[in-house]
Amino acid sequence: QLQFVESGGGLVQPGESLRLSCAASGFTLDYYAIGWFRQAPGKDREGVSCISKKSEQYYEDSVQGRFTISRDNRKNTVILQMNKVKPEDTGVYYCGAAAEASWDPAEYDYWGQGTQVTVSS
């Protein structure tokens, strides 16, 4: 059975760090580009970061320099390391798998269930 699961979210204070994981079973993540998207209440799902099949990394401007996306192929997992978080980083974070790296959610074939990230004092 295919599973695609995000974990690692929670409540953190501004300036702290979180490490989100996107773990797959039933398919191999290194055959896909992986994107992290987030969605705040009343807003559309927006791209945060993505990584190509060759591990090229792309970041939305507001997170560049603070977030890092990486692959751990042995664990069939993609990581989003979130440093120096800000209140505007709050949202439900989803990982998706696509044929090629893209900022367009429509290009992603598989999605996880999401993990909530709340940045607040």
Q: How would you describe the overall organization of this protein?
A:
The radius of gyration is 13 Å and the shape is globular. The strands form two sheets. Strands 2, 4, 5, 6, 9, 10 and 11 form a seven-stranded mixed sheet that branches. A four-stranded antiparallel sheet has the order 1-3-8-7, with no helix packed on it. It has strands at residues 3-7, 10-12, 18-25, 33-39, 46-51, 57-59, 67-72, 77-82, 91-98, 108-111, 115-119. The chain is an all-beta fold and 121 residues long.
Q: Could you provide a short overview of the structure?
A:
The chain has 121 residues and is mainly beta.
Class per helix and strand makeup: mainly beta
- Taking the alpha carbons of the first and last residues, their distance comes to 40 Å
Average pLDDT, all residues: 95
So what's the overall shape? Answer: globular
Q: Helical region count?
A: 0
**Share of helix, binned:** under 10%
Tally the beta strands.
Answer: 11
Radius of gyration: 13 Å
Describe the largest sheet: 7 strands, mixed
Succession of helices and strands:
EEEEEEEEEEE
In terms of per-residue confidence, which ranges show pLDDT below 50 for 5 or more consecutive residues?
A: none
Percent in strands: over 45%
